């Protein structure tokens, strides 16, 4: 397969600059498992939507940390194109460039953060398979400025030539279909370099646009435009000699405005959106500009005050275009449409309605779904003027009714996300009874998944922005607790703790006591991801469901659903999180990571006493959980009273006597998260699932013999970028495991039948 791809691109197989993703092995250890997605439907910010200019029904989504998707017009679904990718950094997509002549060819620039690996991907089968070209210039698919673009462009008059506007290392060029790259020395801005530490990153070069009318087929285009979103005097450069020399475009907008996106029409009009920030945050000024590239005359065609980003031209009707606001401008964000080159505009928000019944979390507990924010991926189908899509901070909307924009009938938008699972999952739990899965997400709260194939409503009453912890009572699994971050949709009280006594069908808000002198911030003043140690404290529940423990700096306990609270006694100041025994309702544990001392309570977490412990590794402190989303390395097994596991940096340790003695498991797995599922037939204990590394391979593993041996259960076709965050094992279906990823939502596997 790869040989034919090399031949088509005309590149030597032995080119040292090219590495190829490993092919799927026929004897993969996990080949006996089948994998599916737990359906949520979208869920995250997707900065770019790109139609193929030459093949009808072909489009791509570039997500900021969840990979590439391709629209399958026959299946009416988006297909993830990087599930076999084992490199976590490649899940952040900086830019996508469909070939402007051959619809089967597509390129992508990938690299989630500037500190990670970066590459150019290329495919001659619409992304079913990729060739990977590692590159030295850094990318930031999930950094500020990811709304700009497209940075990667193919010359329509010579498709061997590609340009890439990098963030930190100037303008890059390839003359061999992306196989090798070199910096354009003549480009005036070499790049500001990769900033150190957590310094504010740079956006770099925001787009590359070829003027197709400036060249002939096979000879290449002569005129090229490059936008610059870095601070400086000039923000638009032009070459009229195929990139040999460059000059700033005269009379450009004020230097305080940064160019975001640009497209050129057949008459040589270059349309550009501007904002006073690289976005998608902190935008409050901007413009929509039109440059006549033949005369050099600029026209301000802004439909409103404020910043703009998303932009698309109607390729069927000259002078028809859409542009999206970013940052709210004079009200909620909207998309403006013009049919006369920007002389007059119509706002689509006021003449639109949305049906989000297929993805109900988009209601956010309100009567109607929002039009959207961070509208940066905006595209009119080049083959159908009525078909348009736009991306938001939470979904992708689509309609075939754009040409009704001036009619009295509202435009109907629906979520265009079938197949898209682009979310960051924080926590999960699979209770012994009730719904098979309870999930907690970043940005979109969480869900009770009664049917894994149906998008559920968001968990509410209270609703969280982030759900940080979920726990259930092992002996009374109908009792579930969760903690999270304030949501603006909570009314009238902002709860960040909740419990359910009916398996998550209904919920009750819970408030732990605040210390004397603590000033509670009003709900409308609490910022996103507030991070207060009292407001955002985690919660656990006893095995019988009667006792809740909230891990504020001084943990508190309630046995009457929050009517009264008692402080725990006997714990040191810097202990780790409290763990409930899964079999004995009175027993709780806490580990002091500084001294490797285990504290045990036998009275429902009211008092703790230090207990002598043997067998823990020497570097216990290295596993201390920091931050509300961290993994607790001390885990209680449901098999019996007093069974504890510790996830060490060098392996797993197990105790069967309440933590008095720990013994290293023999399997050799170095894990970072684990859970217990239904036991195998005739097995002595629960099936153990873990995320970790064995013999250097990061994967999803299971053990049927309490960690003595491990089997990998995912194969090379289901790597999911190896961005694994959590694992939850089904207590009722043998072998089923749920895996939370950072960017690819929740996937689940079970033995093939």
TrEMBL record:
InterPro entries according to UniProt: WD40/YVTN_repeat-like_dom_sf (IPR015943), Xyloglucanase_GH74 (IPR052025)
The UniProt record lists the keyword Hydrolase: yes
Signal sequence region: 1-25
Domain of life per record: Bacteria
Keyword set, alphabetical order: Carbohydrate metabolism, Glycosidase, Hydrolase, Polysaccharide degradation, Signal
Keyword Transferase: no
Annotated family: Belongs to the glycosyl hydrolase 74 family.
Protein name: Cellulose binding domain-containing protein
Species this protein is from: Rhizomicrobium electricum
Lineage per the UniProt record: Bacteria, Pseudomonadati, Pseudomonadota, Alphaproteobacteria, Micropepsales
């Amino acid at each position: 397969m790869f040989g034919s791809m090399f031949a088509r691109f005309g590149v030597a197989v032995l080119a040292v600059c090219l590495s190829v993703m490993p092919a799927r092995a026929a004897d993969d250890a996990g080949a006996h498992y089948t994998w599916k997605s737990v359906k949520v439907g979208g869920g995250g910010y997707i900065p770019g939507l790109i139609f193929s200019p030459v093949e009808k029904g072909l489009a791509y989504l570039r997500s900021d940390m969840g990979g590439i998707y391709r629209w399958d017009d026959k299946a009416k679904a988006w297909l993830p194109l990087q599930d076999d990718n084992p490199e976590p950094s490649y899940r952040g997509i900086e830019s996508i460039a469909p070939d402007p002549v051959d619809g089967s060819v597509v390129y992508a620039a990938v690299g989630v953060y500037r500190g990670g690996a970066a590459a150019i991907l290329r495919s001659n089968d619409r992304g079913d398979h990729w060739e990977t070209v590692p590159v030295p210039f850094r990318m930031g698919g999930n950094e500020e400025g990811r709304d700009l673009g497209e940075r990667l462009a193919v010359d329509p008059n010579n498709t061997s030539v590609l340009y890439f506007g990098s963030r930190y290392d100037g303008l890059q060029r390839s003359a061999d279909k992306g196989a090798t790259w070199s910096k354009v020395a003549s480009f005036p801005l070499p790049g500001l370099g990769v900033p150190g530490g957590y310094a504010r990153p740079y956006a770099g070069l925001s787009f590359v646009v070829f003027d197709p009318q400036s060249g002939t087929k096979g000879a290449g285009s002569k005129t090229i435009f490059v936008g610059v979103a870095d601070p400086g005097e000039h923000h638009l450069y032009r070459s009229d000699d195929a990139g040999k020399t460059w000059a700033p475009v005269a009379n450009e907008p004020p230097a305080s405005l940064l160019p975001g996106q640009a497209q050129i029409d057949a008459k040589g009009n270059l349309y550009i959106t501007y904002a006073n920030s690289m976005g998608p945050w902190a935008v409050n000024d901007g413009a929509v500009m039109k440059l006549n590239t033949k005369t050099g005359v600029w026209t301000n065609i802004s439909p409103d005050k404020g910043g703009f980003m998303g932009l698309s031209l109607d390729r069927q009707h000259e002078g028809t275009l859409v542009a999206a606001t970013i940052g709210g401008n004079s009200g909620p964000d909207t998309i403006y449409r013009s049919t006369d080159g920007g002389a007059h505009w119509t706002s689509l928000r006021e003449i639109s309605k949305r049906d989000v019944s297929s993805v109900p979390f988009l209601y956010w507990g309100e009567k109607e779904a929002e039009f959207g924010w961070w509208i940066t991926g905006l595209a009119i189908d080049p083959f159908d003027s009525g078909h348009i899509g736009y991306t938001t901070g939470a979904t992708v909307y689509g309609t075939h009714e754009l040409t009704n924009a001036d009619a009295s009938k509202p435009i109907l938008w629906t979520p265009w996300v079938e197949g898209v699972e682009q979310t960051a999952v924080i926590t999960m739990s699979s209770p012994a009874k009730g719904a098979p899965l309870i999930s907690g997400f970043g940005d979109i709260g969480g869900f009770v998944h009664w049917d894994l194939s149906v998008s559920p409503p968001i968990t509410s009453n209270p609703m969280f922005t982030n759900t940080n912890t979920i726990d259930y009572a092992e002996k009374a699994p109908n009792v579930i607790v969760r903690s999270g971050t304030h949501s603006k949709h909570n009314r009238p009280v902002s709860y960040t703790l909740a419990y359910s006594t009916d398996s998550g069908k209904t919920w009750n808000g819970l408030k732990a006591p605040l210390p004397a002198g603590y000033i509670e911030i009003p709900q409308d003043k609490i910022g996103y991801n507030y991070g207060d140690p009292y407001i955002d404290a985690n919660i656990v529940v006893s095995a019988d469901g009667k006792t809740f423990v909230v891990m504020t700096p001084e943990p508190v306990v309630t046995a009457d659903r929050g009517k009264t609270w008692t402080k725990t006694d006997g714990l040191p100041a810097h202990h780790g999180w409290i763990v409930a025994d899964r079999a004995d309702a009175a027993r709780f544990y806490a580990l002091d990571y500084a001294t490797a001392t285990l504290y045990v309570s036998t009275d429902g977490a009211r008092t703790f006493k230090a207990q002598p412990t043997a067998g823990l590794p020497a570097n216990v402190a290295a596993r201390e959980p920091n931050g509300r989303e961290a993994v607790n390395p001390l885990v209680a097994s449901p098999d019996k009273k007093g069974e504890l596991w510790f996830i060490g940096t060098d392996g797993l340790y197990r105790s069967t006597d309440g933590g008095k003695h720990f013994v290293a498991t023999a399997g050799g797995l170095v894990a970072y998260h684990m859970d217990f599922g239904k036991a195998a037939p005739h097995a002595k204990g629960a099936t153990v699932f873990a995320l970790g590394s064995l013999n250097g391979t990061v994967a999803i593993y299971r053990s049927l013999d309490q960690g003595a041996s491990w089997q990998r259960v995912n194969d090379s076709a289901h790597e999911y970028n190896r961005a694994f965050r959590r694992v939850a094992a089904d207590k009722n279906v043998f072998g089923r495991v749920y895996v939370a990823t950072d960017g690819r939502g929740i996937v689940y596997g079970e033995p093939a039948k």
